[in-house]
Amino acid sequence: MKNKYLEAWMEEAVHIPGKIDQHFSGLNEEVLNHKPTPTKWSIGELLDHLIVTNTLYFGRFEKIIAQKHSNPLTARFKYLSAFFGQSILKSVHPDNTRKIKTVRKFQPVKKQFTLDKLKEFKDHHSVLMDFALKTDVADHQKTIITSPASGLIFYSLEDAFRIILAHEQRHIQQAVQLLPTSKEMPVSS
């Protein structure tokens, strides 16, 4: 691979669908949609949030693959792109337990989901991994993209992929914490 970090990234990313199966394959829709409090998301909402957020990157990836991407003018401020990338990565890292306010455009689309959401997420993750491989035509450290959250935020493509994977890991970890204990509601129907 042209971008060496992608090998380790792919090794981590390939385990995400297995984690979904391991933790959530026996769920029923009640558990998938259960909200512990009105302000906390359900497992379904967490997965939908990841799909919504990641999908907002896909147009950028397509331009890079088609070699039609040009770095924003702000890319010349390398220290800022590094700052933004590392700051966001740190904030979405699974070890960071601090709650983060989600940008409106990253909100889950629906509130109620069927069990198809698990397969939809795994399929979506497969598309993400395919994009990671196909964007290997570009130098991920020198390719600077703007954040889907705001055009004023920009970082390297490498940081974008690291952010996306850490973000997925963080929310899957949060979803696992929402699973009922044996004394609460049933896991399978």
UniProtKB/TrEMBL annotation:
Q: Secretion signal: which residues? A: none
Q: Which residues form the DinB-like domain?
A: 20-175
Q: Which Pfam families match?
A: DinB_2 (PF12867)
> InterPro entries recorded for this chain?
DinB-like (IPR024775), DinB/YfiT-like (IPR034660)
Q: Which Gene3D superfamilies match?
A: dinb family like domain
What protein name does the entry list?
DinB family protein
This protein's species is Marinoscillum luteum
